[in-house]
Amino acid sequence: MKNFIYVLLLNILLVNCGSDDAELTPRLWLQVQEIPADVSDSYSFEDLNIKVYKSKDDYNQETNAVYSGKLDASGELEITNGIEKGIAYYVDIYSDDNVLSNWEVSLASFDPNDALTTYTSNENSGLAINILLTKGSRHFVGTWNFSDYNSSHFGHETHDRTVRTTLTINKDFSVVSKETYNDKTFTVNYGINGVFDGQLSLNYIHTLPSESGYPYALGADSQSILVNTEAIYINMQADSANKLIEFYDYADEYVFYSK
């Protein structure tokens, strides 16, 4: 009889435990931290959009959002609809003017996939996922059109520069420059390794189909080419609408792009 009672109690306990597990609905429980102090008078949590994507492609192209909405005054949000257990979701938070966002990259090491914008369902956690806001970073995202070369640059003449078309800065921290020279099309690829207020720091990755035929500037001895390997960056120019950037690139060129 005692053995029967023991087995019965054990079964009840197992059933209850299984019931508790079943009640843990997959969720993303997010808490956005404070608005940066220098713009806290101009923005509130309610000014922030939030979109959640299941894949990097959807996040980068801004399609097929699992969730789309606004934060409330607390900056806290719990999402369950469409959330699956163990899936890393891409979370995009930004103000309408892109001044504030969570678009950032880890400075610990260069890795285009080392983003601080992916979060896994946290139904077993008693704490919300903390999200930090950055200022002045998401302005860069998008496709920019060639405007002009910096005319003061000494390394090139007009005839031996590539014809630039677009510079695309993606949310997955890749940067692509489209260029042509002598009827040959070049795609120059970079990766962002740092995002700062008003500046991106980049690493050169490669040129496709190859660097052969690319018109790099010549060195002082007219034999060696000049390439920039130490300080590749993109600066946001000081115009009121943030519609102009200057790119100091791998080809040792200063190039202006606009929107």
What does this structure look like?
With 259 residues, the protein is mainly β. It contains two helices and 19 strands. The protein has helices at residues 2-22, 56-61, and strands at 28-32, 48-53, 67-70, 76-79, 88-95, 100-101, 118-120, 129-131, 134-135, 142-149, 163-169, 174-181, 184-196, 199-208, 217-218, 225-226, 233-236, 244-248, 254-258. The strands form five sheets. The protein has an eight-stranded antiparallel barrel with strand order 10-11-12-13-14-17-18-19. A hairpin with a 4-residue loop joins strand 11 (163-169) and strand 12 (174-181). Residues 1-10 have low confidence and may be disordered.
Please state the structural category: mainly beta
- Shape call: elongated
What is the H/E order?
A: HEEHEEEEEEEEEEEEEEEEE
| Average of pLDDT | 84
Q: Describe the strand arrangement of the main beta sheet, using strand numbers.
A: 10-11-12-13-14-17-18-19
The portion of residues assigned to helices is 10-25%
Radius of gyration: 25 Å
Which runs of at least 5 residues are low in confidence (pLDDT < 50)?
1-10
Tally the helices. 2
Beta content comes to 35-45%
What is the straight-line distance between the termini? 82 Å
Number-wise, the strands total: 19
Largest sheet: 8 strands, antiparallel, barrel
Provide keyphrases for this structure:
single chain; 259 residues; mainly beta; 4-stranded antiparallel sheet; 2 helices; 10% helix
Secondary structure layout plus pairing:
Elements: H1 2-22, E1 28-32, E2 48-53, H2 56-61, E3 67-70, E4 76-79, E5 88-95, E6 100-101, E7 118-120, E8 129-131, E9 134-135, E10 142-149, E11 163-169, E12 174-181, E13 184-196, E14 199-208, E15 217-218, E16 225-226, E17 233-236, E18 244-248, E19 254-258
Parallel strand pairs: 1-8
Antiparallel strand pairs: 1-4, 2-3, 2-5, 5-7, 6-9, 10-11, 10-19, 11-12, 12-13, 13-14, 14-17, 15-16, 17-18, 18-19
